């Protein structure tokens, strides 16, 4: 039986057994992981998996189950179990399928599926990882070891059907390449990394560039120092600004907002940041790693501005949080076959600025250029921010020496209001991206 037929049969049997609304969600995945270290293959792993989740509603009660057993008897038993759960759990007035179902655009419009990936030989994928590591070693004689280089790809197909008429599916691919060299000088060792991830293989950064950049990021931290505790301007490079933006994406989660569990709750249409704060979430971005024609419950994805010149314009919603907050879904339901829909950003990014990163650095008389952050130091409920950081110390507009073992701290609102400059170096390397950012002032806690 074809997957579409399996889903249609589940919907039919669920309604017949007493469900008022029914949904079936199926995933099929194929993954490949290759890790090489010092020219030798350490890991070569290929895995395939598939699973199916059933979500049913009866009198505002939810039943959910999932399985990887697609036999007819197993699916029939799963339907019965899910109907039983839907009739015997607590009711919630906000439960239910999305109200609006539309036909879905083709995956080809989004360019998130690389049909040629399956024809790309495994040996050539191994060679990509080896070339990245070789380039890292060749770039600097202080690179004397390696934590390895990894190539990873994934091909997935998603099917969704429900009793409201949805009959949807799409394919996507994910390809990434990373390199982690180790440098040594005078007994001091440092490690760092660089990576890229894309939907299409042809869009991936050349392995030689990945290796060389990984080496640059590693050797520049040799000879790191601590600094005195002080308040100075802070610059986040695109890696760290993207990490900051990832934390901010939780702050605009509609479910958290409905529970007053984010510092942004109740601030819709209020100015909470600098006029340079312009953030989009776009599930329809061509070639975007977070792009998809529909979300985890069948709502079409869309492009929406989350922050407009510092004003919070929308939270991100699935159908549940949208009902709870008396609005409409933004198409941000996210799930796997083994989970009910939650909320997550799709392609969440800070709009590109007008200033060269070099000019941003030159604008700082004394400050800290942050290139790495450790831990998740953003408290979304309170809005407090504190993270371990390392990077380069700036004197008179010039990076002078590496800094490590320090903490930067403040509040997220202070940081958002303190955005003074935005770089013109936005690169989509993952589903959450941001250019270089300059914050007016933060506490750097050192020695």
Integer-rounded radius of gyration: 24 Å
Global outline: globular
| Overall tally of domains | 2
Order of helical and strand elements: HEEEHHHEEEEHEHHEEEHEEEHEEEHEEE
Question: In this structure, how is the largest beta sheet organized?
Answer: 7 strands, antiparallel
Can you count the beta strands? 20
Q: Tell me the strand percentage band.
A: 35-45%
Give the oligomer, counting copies of the same chain as homo and different chains as hetero: single chain
Low confidence ranges: none
Helix content: 10-25%
Q: Write down the overall mean pLDDT.
A: 95
CA distance, first residue to last residue = 67 Å
> Structural class, from secondary structure content?
alpha+beta
Walk me through what this model shows.
By secondary structure, this protein is of the alpha+beta class. The chain has two domains: 1-221, PmbA/TldD fold, CATH 3.30.2290.10; 224-447, no CATH class. 23% of the residues lie in helices and 37% in strands. The chain has ten helices and 20 strands. The strands form four sheets. Strands 1, 2, 3, 4, 5, 6 and 7 form a seven-stranded antiparallel sheet that branches. It has a five-stranded mixed β-barrel with strand order 8-15-16-17-20. The chain has a five-stranded mixed sheet with strand order 11-10-9-14-19, covered by helices on one side.
